[in-house]
Amino acid sequence: MTTPDPILIKVPEEIVTERLVLAAPRAGLGQALAAAVTESIEHLKPWMPWAQLAPTVEDSEAVMRRMQADFILRRDLVYQIYRKGEDGRAGRLLGGTGLHRLDWEVRRFEIGYWIRSSALGQGYVSEAVQALTRMAFESLRARRVEIRMDDLNLRSRAVAERCGYELEGVLRQDALTVNGEPRNTCVYARIA
C-alpha cells in the first residue's frame, strides 16, 4: 500500500480531554508562549536545549508560526496544552506536547512534552500524553509511538510509565546534555 502524501493526511487540530484542550499552534500566541516558557525556564533548562534563555515575545511568535507551518506540512505535529475553561474552550496555556520525528511510511511517532512550573504535579502531562497516544493510534494508524528522554529525567520517565509505555532500553551515551556532556537516552514505546 502506498503511503499518501503526508500533507493530505487528516490530523485533528484540537484534542479535548476532561481538563485540557490540546490545540495546534497558530499565529498570535507568541506572548502566551513566552510567558509560559519564561515562568518555567529553571525547571526546563536541564532538559530542553531550546529553554536556555527566557524568550522574547517576538522570538516566541516566530516559533509559534514555524510550528504552525510545520503542522500544516505534517513535518512536526506540535500541540499547545491549555487548561479547559468552563465553556469547554482553551484557557490558560500550560505547556506543549506533540508528535515529533514523524515516519509516515512506518507510522512511527515520538511524543515530547513540557509543562509550565505552576502546573507541575497535577497530572496534566499524563492526561495530554494519553490523549495524544489515543489520537496517534486511532486517527493516524500509528504502529509505534515512542517517548525518549535523558535517563536522569525522572519526572519524564514517570509520565511514560504512568501512560503505559514500556521501557525498551537505554541508549548509552547516545546524545548530549544541554551542557554538551554525553548522556544516556531511555526509549519507552507502545505498539499497535
TrEMBL record:
All copies of the N-acetyltransferase domain together span 48-192
Record-level Gene Ontology MF annotations: protein N-terminal-serine acetyltransferase activity; protein-N-terminal-alanine acetyltransferase activity
| A GO CC annotation given for this chain | cytoplasm
Q: What is the organism field in this record?
A: Paucibacter sediminis
**SUPFAM superfamilies associated with the record:** Acyl-CoA N-acyltransferases (Nat)
This protein is called what?
Answer: GNAT family protein
Q: Which Gene3D superfamilies match?
A: 3.40.630.30
Q: What InterPro entries does the annotation carry?
A: Acyl_CoA_acyltransferase, GNAT_dom, Ribosomal_N-acetyltransferase
